[in-house]
Amino acid sequence: MSPVVTIGVRDARAHASRFVMSIVAIALGVAFVLGSFCFRGLLDGQVRKMTSTNADGDVYVQGLVTEDSDDSSASAEPAASSSSSSSDDDTDSRNNIDVSLVSTISAVDGVQTAVPARSLDGVVLVNSDGVAASSMTGTSANAMSEEYRWRSAHFVQGGYPHGEHEVALSSDTASSAGLAYGSQAKIVYPSAGVQDVTVTGIFDLDDSQAGALVLGLDPDVVISELQAQGTSTDTIPRIKVYGSANGGAALTEKQQQDLADAINAALPADSQATAVTGQSHRDELNKSYSKQLGFIQPLILIFAVLALFVGSFIIANTFTMIVRDSMRGYALLRSIGVSPGQVFATVIIQALLLGLVGSGIGVVLGWGIVEAIVAILAAQGTPFTASAAPTVPIILLAFAVGIAVSLLGATLPARRAALAPPIQAMNETTNPEPPVTRRAIGGIVLALLGGLCWWFALAIAHTSDTAAGPTPWPALNGIGVGWPLGVGAGLLVVGVIMLAPALVRPFGAVLGWLPAHAFRVTGRLAVRNLSRQRRRTANTAAALFVALAIVGCIGVVTSSVKASVSDIVDNNLQADYVLVANSTRIPEPALEQIRQLDDVADVETTSVAMGVKVSGVPDPMPVFVTDRGFADTVIAPDSWEGDFYGTLDDSTRVVVGETTASKYGWHVGDTIELTSDGVTMAAAAQQAQQQAQEAQQQAQEAQQAARQSSRTATYTIDAIAKGVPWSSNIWIDATQADELGLSDALIKPSAFVTFRDGTDTAAARGELESIARPYYTISVMSHDEYKSATSSMVDQVMLGMYALLALSLVIAIFGIVNTLMLSISERTREIGVLRAIGTSDRQVRGMIAIESTLISIMGTVLGLVAGVAAGAEIRGCYSAMGLSVLSIPWLQLALFLVCSIAVGILASLAPARRALEVPVLDAVASE
């Protein structure tokens, strides 16, 4: 072992106690990094397991895919049969296929069973205690019978359901609902309402469904319910095929490919269908689900970066303290010929050891946190069977991050140790702190640039035409508010951190006025001590600044969301009561009963069709279905361009929200094409020509067939509406929804009931609740209850973010402790002299507590000011999407300020104890 390594390891052992807080900071940051990857891997693994169970077919026959529905010249190529060439775009839409293809497919050699894919949304199972069963991962109601086989389901009791009064349940579903084989239960159907059923079968599945409730229904019941909802059952999304090659067992990928090729050869040329391997279909589903869950990992990584960023200040302060205490030793090394590079290496070796230890603890901690989350979810009825263990690449990445942060934090102190002249180091003299003027000017410039970005974001948000936007370049005007918001926030944070050292003295003068007058000696000493090392003081406050800026921003946004909802309900919602479905839709029978009440003047619902393709829009989007009654009796737009009410009365025209119109450059008079579950007629015709390569007559016949299966229509935009909820949606009426075949996709999550004038609303509520109660899934809410429910949902979402931020605050507290330890180490003799001339231990503790508190308050004030500004900016940028009211939670901010005082006092305890542990004579003689 080289002398440099030996010295580095020896110094690391000697300073082990000082590394504790740095190790904690690294461990927490690394735990976040590793935990984010492990949790994402856990989710992806669970999705793959669930997909292999739910989509266990050997081959799937499905519609053709249109890669770009807004390009009428694009051909609708059949999806490739191999898993390696499946569609890369999970947003591609496919046309439904004719159910009569089941008989054609069943006749193909090698096919054991061909099963139409049929399922129901919005079905609710009632628990044994009479409460609607719910799950974080939803409810799946599938058609199951001897003909509708499901290879992954294995009955352990009973068998398939027959008729509308029987149901089969998965073992996990039966257990969570408190039901058993032969139990009497209730099911709530979206159209048929509540039905009494008997549990005629209990089945196990090949893999856990992560707590999802899985029901098996008679296929005839599923078909009847779909028809009652207005859904055509002559076409289906896909057909699941099981092969016979392995005696009913799953086929290999080669066998799947051979069977898919055989089915493709048997499909009629005008079927608008293609066969793909089961593995190809599962890969496509996994990619789609993974994309939907993709937001989770970046969210956690944001807090990982925050924790490591804050931790880097602690590491830098730790090594500054270590270098200062070891300066004489380094001087001796230099005097006997050790090079500056070797001195630098001794410090870097300590940082390397620190990073290794902290990263190792972080890996174990992060893995343990994920396993704890899995255990908590399992206890709450959402078991995960996928592995949460980190892979070797993830572990190596975690160690790399922890070591990199340690080395980054130690570089400047190591450089100072290496470049200090030996004579100066031997005498332990220190250079005066360099001026902070240039750094402050740079910080002001960055902060102003950040403000300019925020102005640009506001200008974009409030400009409906990119050609007349804030810049002469339409492309730049059309980038949206996300990038300017994010870049502006980053510039502002860095600018404030750079400017902070120049603010230390003004802050000390203002914040220290009260303690300086209340405690004339200790208060003045504390204020003076802050200004000695302005950069170090500012860096310590920066840790709290970043954390509190995010807390303040979240607080303002949360408060503004709740205030905006309250404003909308108080000033715009005209209905007397709101009915909210605990499932995806309110059952139609319940709505019919409510409409028949004598005192009811109107019942309006919000109906949403998901996944509609719109010309010029890359991804499918939700489309709202309504009529004039919704605007007349529930919520009307704040203002509009064009003929708003005339458009609602005309089934050839549509209303588009201001935000959506601005995003895609739409204007009154433009036309848009909506496509649901099909391809455009032009694309289908071209596909027919490409596939057939025959006579014009056959191409025309294929085009006519495409017309019959396609669900595409073109509408004129005759109104652009502003104000919630109109601003960010496309609105069509029921006739247009039928024309597009959207009945099977409609979700009715809420209904708005208006009573006649003079009605006793309290008594009327009783009637509503008596109707809703037997359906188990409907909540009746007044205006205040509706606001409260919305606020509660917002609070639950933000609670998790606050919990993550709390760890960053803990790290920031460690930073203050570290800074005070360093400051006291540098002032050992000074404190000894104060004690020698009569300063009491109580006064020393008070001085250090005041220093700590002033640092905490400075970081908190800067953070809250920046956070409130960021929250106000976000509110302004998204005002058209519902954030109409700016609400600053003053009480909450005041609580944060009070907590910062408590944090300062808490952080001062250990440094004060250390200062008083040194005997007075030893302290005086220490320098």
From TrEMBL:
Residue ranges of the ABC3 transporter permease C-terminal domain? 302-418, 803-917
What GO cellular component is one of the record's annotations? plasma membrane
Which controlled-vocabulary keywords does the entry list?
Cell membrane, Coiled coil, Membrane, Transmembrane, Transmembrane helix
- What is the first-listed, main subcellular location in coarse terms? membrane
Q: Where is this region: Disordered?
A: 67-95
**Example GO molecular function term?**
transmembrane transporter activity
Q: Where in the cell is it found?
A: Cell membrane
TM helices/strands, residue ranges? 20-43, 295-316, 336-357, 364-382, 394-414, 440-461, 481-504, 538-557, 799-825, 846-870, 890-910
> Would you identify the family this protein belongs to, as annotated?
Belongs to the ABC-4 integral membrane protein family.
Per its record, how is this protein called by name? ABC transporter permease
Q: Which organism is it from?
A: Pseudoscardovia radai
Upper taxonomic lineage: Bacteria, Bacillati, Actinomycetota, Actinomycetes, Bifidobacteriales
